[in-house]
Amino acid sequence: MDKERFSMLLLEPGEIFFQDYSVRMKLNQTSDGENYDWMDGRLKLCSKSLVFVNKDINEPLIKFQMKEIISIECVTDENNESGNVLTIACKQYAEMLRGNRLEPYKFIHKKVNFLLSFNYANPDDCLPHIMQLLRASTLPTAEQNAMIMTIVHSRQSRFNFDTSWLEDLYEQVVFEVQASKVLPLIINPGRVLLTNSRIYFQPYNNLDQGLEIKWTKLPENKVEYLFLSVKSQEDRDKLYENLLNQPDLELEIVPQNQMTIQWQNGALSNYEYLLYINSLADRTFHDLTQYPVMPWIIQDYSSPTIDFNDPKNYRDLTKPIGALEPSRLERLKERYDEMSGKKFLYGSHYSAPGFVLFYLVRKYPQYMLCLQNGRFDHPDRMFNNVADVWKNVLANMSDFKELVPEFYDPSNNGDFLVNNYGIDFGFRFDGTKVNDVLLPPWANGPGDFVKKLRDALESDWVSENLHHWIDLIFGYKQRGAEAEKSNNVFFHLCYEGAVDLDTIQDINDRHALEVQIMEFGQIPKQVFTLPHPKRLVNTINLSADLSLSRSVLTSESKEEANNLSLEQYIVFSSHKDVITNINFMGDSENIASVGQDGVLKIYSMSTKKLTRSISLSNLPLSSCIFYKTKNNQSILVVGSWDNTLIFYDVEFGKIIDVLMGHEDAVSSLELSPTKNIFISGSWDCTVKIWHSYESGTKIKPHECLIAQLDHDSKVTCLSISKDEKLLVSGTEDGEIFLWNMDTYNLHFMVKDHESKINAMTFDSECKNIISCASDKLINVFDIQTSTRIYSTSLDNEPMAFGWNGPLLLVGDDQGYLSFWDSHGASFRSKIQCHKGPLTAIIFTTDNKFVITGGNDKKIIVWNCHQ
């Protein structure tokens, strides 16, 4: 656990922490005459309690509930050097985190007096605030909460944002407003400050330091959120409007129908799409009353093995949980028919805070202790056995809960199923100790269990039926006549909009409804009013031409389909190691190549001879680009595995500069001649944008570096669009990033490859990105929506791309060069070019020649015959 043991989760849900004081505390002399020593620590003043945090981490925190305090007064203690102390008389107190362990609180039920001596503050200064909160505790709960919020808003209005927290002193303040940061079961009041470049939250207590929020596009599954609540709709709208008006803000907005299309076509997984729909329905991981809901998928939890191709193993997704078992449904309907007024089939819900923590108590025990006043559930009512829970949701007349996303997220390795904290949850009726969750026989541990559930969720059967469940939870079967037909009717207060809390004047009535929502949960916001479309399972990772490509992907059939023939024109065998890159030097006459031998070679197409050989590095060279300066100086820039960019003057035949551009090997280079810049990618997980070298200047990294684009893994390849407006980068982890070359902002990131990206290219119209990777896939992505519109798997690993008019050429790890149509959507033919992997392909501008390089150390120039 953290050194700072105090957490707002030690308070009641939603309780406010105001401030703390350095104090000494001791239990006053008891009736038996025993004297107690002073304890050093801090006193936390909270809206419904006082918490003493002992400096000794092995000693418990002591919590005094305001409602249990009999009196607080300032007295003079002759034995205390500081003079005045506070004496607290209470009926009971709680001990928490004894030995720094997460365990149920120990409640001491006896009348005691504690003495508090303040080290720096004057007790008279804080006593009025404590007494105000003490008076509030005597009121009914609703009135107490109202009085506390009045105190909070009063303190907030006197608190100003500390501008010393600003990252940049030249930032311009745009808007400031009272706000509270919201986390599960926690509300922390403070102020939000919006500037022209950042948004800040600063709590008025000192629990957190000032918080700066500067959002950037993050890789998949690394989304960050800040949840703020403000006191009025007007304040919310002003903050939102001012935020949207900031010129530096770029929102990624993908229309809802586009997300559905992506899911239908396999660009989004079922899991990702369900999380997306949950977010549309205002379900969030930050609110246990609105936690994302996921369906039960598997219904067999007793067999030793499980077959995900067998439909019998799946739950019926056309029915709500309560309607899966016919005999229980019949009894519920009988009760429904006998009701008067607003009828309902299910008095309990499929998602509520208690149900969420039922599943996650082992991972978030502090949440359960907060929700249940320092106690865990009875051992026999806990999540002990997956099979038992499934049986219960089928048969119990009041149990209809679905699952939470953690069941389908393999990245957590099933940690919510394991008692990693070693908490003593007690013993069940049969004497067994509550520990880890008992899993079905077909699961080889928690991680395997979650992975198999995810596999089931992504199965063809679920893909074909998931839209039915979406209709029930988020769609047109959620309410009204369709809900009645589908046996999907819940208690009326569970529905969004059933009651407008803002219109309820009586605070006790409002509080009662809030408790109802807190305890019983809410139906998600309705997202769809028409039947949800079905997923197009047969098109996922397939195309109409795939069967053709597999049937003709042999050298024997190439003659029939070939409409482009290649004739060997020149062969250069001057490199001593693998060819890594080939490029033209301003025209189609001279060729430059680099290899893993650390040598740069220059060839003449007209004389068919090697004209120059320059040893540049003891390590492999990865890439090269050519450009002319404003003074018409011919420059070759070469990327090296020694982290450098080497600048070579072609005319004078010498190295003119070496730039230590990266912290790891330079893997790829691209040129933007109209912008007078070049781009380098590196294994240090960055792409850097540089001003081009100009004649007579010394390259200084801090002066010529324009921008740095960060990634989460090694950058393996780059490609720039023909109009030089877009840059795409690929990584070792299979991620593809699309960048705007005017702003250097990220347009999107996709990960539909499972391994290293080998090559990428834009189509001729710059509407799509074509990528290939070591997973043997070729994927095509739409630039506007990031949708994967085509995918096919090859027999060999594709390594390099090249264009010849409408034809895409693909070089693979067996040395073959394959011909595809302009979108990579249909295979034409292939020929054998190299022995071993084909690593580089370029065309002359007139498409008369294609040059290939490979692991066989050869560069071959081919004459193209259409």
Description of the molecule:
The strands form nine sheets. This protein has a nine-stranded antiparallel beta sheet with strand order 5-6-9-1-2-3-4-7-8, covered by helices on one side. A hairpin with a 5-residue loop joins strand 34 (777-782) and strand 35 (788-793). The termini are far apart. By secondary structure, it is of the alpha+beta class. Helix 7 packs antiparallel against helix 8. Residues 214-222 and 539-562 have low confidence and may be disordered. It contains 16 helices and 42 strands.
Write the layout of secondary structure elements.
Layout: E1 17-27, E2 39-46, E3 49-54, E4 61-65, E5 69-76, E6 84-90, E7 93-96, E8 106-108, E9 112-118, H1 123-136, H2 141-158, E10 173-183, E11 186-195, E12 199-203, E13 211-213, E14 228-229, H3 233-244, H4 256-264, H5 270-280, H6 326-338, H7 353-360, H8 365-371, H9 386-395, H10 446-457, H11 460-473, H12 480-485, H13 507-520, H14 546-552, H15 558-561, E15 565-572, E16 579-584, E17 590-595, E18 599-604, E19 609-615, E20 621-628, E21 634-640, E22 644-649, E23 654-660, E24 666-672, E25 677-682, E26 686-691, H16 701-704, E27 705-710, E28 715-720, E29 726-731, E30 736-740, E31 746-750, E32 757-762, E33 768-773, E34 777-782, E35 788-793, E36 798-804, E37 807-812, E38 816-820, E39 827-832, E40 838-843, E41 849-854, E42 859-865
Antiparallel strand pairs: 1-2, 1-9, 2-3, 3-4, 4-7, 5-6, 6-9, 7-8, 10-11, 10-14, 11-12, 12-13, 15-42, 16-17, 17-18, 18-19, 20-21, 21-22, 22-23, 24-25, 25-26, 26-27, 28-29, 29-30, 30-31, 32-33, 33-34, 34-35, 36-37, 37-38, 38-39, 40-41, 41-42
